[in-house]
ABC transporter ATP-binding protein (Mesobaculum littorinae), 249 residues
Amino acid sequence: MPTGLEVRGLSKRFGGLVVAEGIDLDLAPGARTALIGPNGAGKSTFANLVTGILRPSAGTIRFDGRDIGRLSERQRVSLGIAKTFQITNLFTRLTVRENLRLPVLEREGRCMRMFRPAQGDPEVEAEVDALIRQFDLEPLADRPVSDLAYGQQRLVEMALTLALRPRVLILDEPAAGVPSSETHLITDAIEALPGDLAVLIIEHDMELVFRVAASIVVLVNGRILTEGTPDTIAADPEVRRLYLGGEDG
């Protein structure tokens, strides 16, 4: 049976600078875990270590019992570990539909056929249409991404990442730069993600975190300070001191 992602003793040093040290974290299928902490705590570094963007100085990363520490970022995506970014990474001159077609064709090894008519790849187009419906993007499907509000662009990026059919999805600050009037789009989309998908949310917006996360891990100076349910974290005096002191991140 799939066991998901298991991280043990994960550490990263740049010379004498320690940015992650001794991190243990599990993401079982269906997990909804948030990783929070002050700016510079090492949250994005941790995500980059898990996805293979960075190589750890020590520790192990296992996926379904397999050590993936030596695999490239691309190989980890193929296994089912995918990540969005703090800043949208879309082809703004292409339409929403064309953007979503790209990862589907890439996943199927047919990226050279991305601009063929819909009737040429009915299964691909059906999958793209399903993603458009899932993220309520129907009115925007044939508009260039550059015409979309920022919150809508973040939805497209989330849909694009989901098109890779990940089993572990890391959302790196999905609400970053999104106006408060559009944050509900991101929250609703996270709540609608497949139930068997393991999701790690790195986020500044505590309202979003406490709404969607079943467990929260607090990272400070590259180390885990504490972890627990949202109620436990909300009542923790040290966590409250960090965030009430204006260092929430």
